[in-house]
Write a structure and sequence with these properties.
- By secondary structure, the protein is mainly alpha-helical.
- It has a domain at 17-45.
- Helices cover 31% and strands 0% of the residues.
- It contains one helix and no strands.
- The protein has one helix at residues 22-42.
- The longest helix has 21 residues, at 22-42.
- The chain is rod-shaped, with a radius of gyration of 28 Å.
- The mean pLDDT is 82.
């Protein structure tokens, strides 16, 4: 095991929660809480997807064509 001060630098991405000890679970929770606070303070907004342009049927008379 690594010393306690290295827990903040430890890569925990390869472990499942069941494999983690109590100290590692607390660190995961701390990292998640820190992430949530960052998102709240930056007020990140998800942009709404752009609406696709409406397709209209081609009408030659509307485009200034000649009538026969």
């Amino acid at each position: 095991m690594q010393p306690d001060e290295d827990i903040r630098q430890r890569d925990l991405s390869g472990k499942t929660v069941r494999e983690m000890d109590a100290q590692e679970k607390e660190e995961i929770k701390r990292r998640f809480d820190e992430f949530v606070e960052l998102v709240k303070t930056r007020k990140v907004r998800v942009a709404a997807p752009a609406r696709p342009k409406q397709v209209t049927k081609w009408n030659p008379l509307a485009a200034g064509g000649k009538r026969f």
